[in-house]
Amino acid sequence: MRSSVPRWIRNFLIGSLVLNIMFFALAGVFIQRRGGYNYAAGVFSRLFPRKEEQKAVYNPASTLRYKERVSIFEEITIEPDMIFLGDSLIERAEWSEFFQDTVVINRGISGDTTSGILNRLDSLGVSVFTKTRVFFYVGVNDLLVGIPEGLIIENYREMIEFFKGRPNKGLFIQNLMPLNEDLCRHHRPQKLRIDNDSIKGFNRKLKELAVETGVGYIELYSGIVNSNDQLPEEYTFDGLHLNGKGYAHWVSIIQNL
Question: What is the structure's pLDDT at 30?
Fold first, then answer.
């Protein structure tokens, strides 16, 4: 019995089958030369990416620098006049030498965040806070690693509540200083997560918190920014951290309170 399928259709199907076999054979040779299975898996994952896995949350308390600094604080018992509490911008300054007539302690840790500070409030090495003024400067690292502003503000609120539960001479939120964005891009080739507009937006929330909680608010941003809305080059080498002139200017703002 003869097939009812026209010859031209049979020829087309046979030709298609041959071409497909040739294509897959050539593709197999190509993939094998490029690395075989690993190459194919890489191409597939790029074409059909899986749902992005949740990134690990940055935890400053897991760093050796953090552990070393906290271990030092825990070996000290003191009643200071001033505490500077924060991240690298606090740690890098010689506060006790800027304020020579007072007992000043530096409780800054490079890379620290608001959650990192909450984790170490019981390890400040302070016996009593009766005569102490506390100056906060933290939040840049939170913003850099993408921590939501709402969570940063809530962490600030908890810090304030901790010190309000202990008699003290005053609590002061210092708002975040501007970046020198050009220098930051030069010294940090990776894309910056923040810019001065985002810092100003966050500072507005800090000011609202200060008003709400009744603590002091120190306006560092407008006190140090230049006419181009940047951290002046004369105050920084890398666009984020301060040099000696920058710290001297910071101290002058505090002294003029």
Answer: 62
CA–CA distance from 23 to each of 18, 63, 95 (Å)? Answer: 9, 53, 72
Torsion of CA 134, 214, 161, 101, to 10 degrees: 10
What residue ranges in the chain does DSSP mark as E strands? 82-86, 104-108, 133-137, 170-174, 216-218
3-class DSSP assignment, residue 17: helix
Helix (H) or strand (E) holding 201: helix 196-213
125 vs 106: CA distance, rounded Å: 11
β-sheet with 82-86: strand ranges across: 104-108, 82-86, 133-137, 170-174, 216-218
187-206: per-residue pLDDT in tens? Answer: 876 657 799 999 999 999 99
Q: Are strands 216-218 and 82-86 parallel, antiparallel or unpaired?
A: unpaired
Cα 176 to chain centroid distance, Å, stands at 13
68-74 contacts: CB < 8 A, separation 24 or more? 69/109, 70/109, 70/120, 70/123, 73/107, 73/120, 73/123, 73/124, 73/125, 74/123, 74/125
Asked whether the beta carbons of 129 and 163 are under 8 A apart, the reply is: yes
Averaged pLDDT, groups of 10, the chain, 257 residues long: 63 76 74 52 44 59 96 96 98 97 97 97 97 98 94 97 97 98 82 88 98 98 97 97 98 93
